Amino acid sequence: MFTDRLYNHAKPIWDAYLEHPFVKGIGDGSLDLEKFKFFMEQDYLYLIDYCRVFALGSVKATHLDTMTMFADLLHSTLNEEMELHRNYAERLGIRREELENTKPSSTLLAYTSYMLNKAHQGAEAEVAACVLACTWSYNVIGLALNEKEGASDHEFYGDWIKMYASDEFTELAEAMKKLMNELADGKPEREKAHLEEIFLHTSKLEYLFWDMSYHKKMWLENSDLLNS
């Protein structure tokens, strides 16, 4: 399977997710709520552009089944995952208008701009490669944290863990992997290598997103001027 190849090459990066203090803090409940708040605000903006990439997938799809798959992913993200963010924001005292008016960090802009650029330039396979690392790795993280005793019962982070460890989200991740395998099947090695490059690049950007959230960094440089 092409996704086995992707996972094997990205595994060192994905292993680092589980060791990152932000992710570990969600698992043991020690994460500072202000850091989680920063993450939720930035991730909400990320999901808006993530939905745009799904929409591009429907436009570029050459078969009705693939068009439907991307449309279903768009619907699920808009109406389920983003609703989780809105619910958390409400518990944090953040109104929906505030979420949508959040200023994007440099890491967020780098990530979403990369996805949108590759999705616009490429075909349906490139779109699938752009969005796969996010959903698949969140499922891997959710399942791993869910195995920790008491993690899913945490009064604040428990719902986040249960969302990404749920059977429904696991099925979503598996469906995206299946789509990636179908779209990569029969492609020459040059094109597969390009898809792998996109997957690895987005995997690295995922790590940078966790790190940005932990340090609440608006800009990559450690400067008070840039981070104001």
Automatic annotation (TrEMBL):
Enzyme Commission number: 3.5.99.2
The UniProt record lists the keyword Hydrolase: yes
InterPro entries (UniProt xref): Haem_Oase-like_multi-hlx, Thiaminase-2/PQQC, Thiaminase_II, Thiamine_Salvage_TenA
Sequence ranges assigned to domain Thiaminase-2/PQQC in this UniProt record: 9-215
Record SUPFAM superfamilies: Heme oxygenase-like
Pathway(s) where this gene product acts: Cofactor biosynthesis; thiamine diphosphate biosynthesis
Gene3D superfamilies: Heme oxygenase-like (1.20.910.10)
Catalytic activity line of the entry: 4-amino-5-aminomethyl-2-methylpyrimidine + H2O = 4-amino-5-hydroxymethyl-2-methylpyrimidine + NH4(+); thiamine + H2O = 5-(2-hydroxyethyl)-4-methylthiazole + 4-amino-5-hydroxymethyl-2-methylpyrimidine + H(+)
Family affiliation: Belongs to the TenA family.
Self-association state and partner proteins as the record states: Homotetramer.
Protein name: Aminopyrimidine aminohydrolase
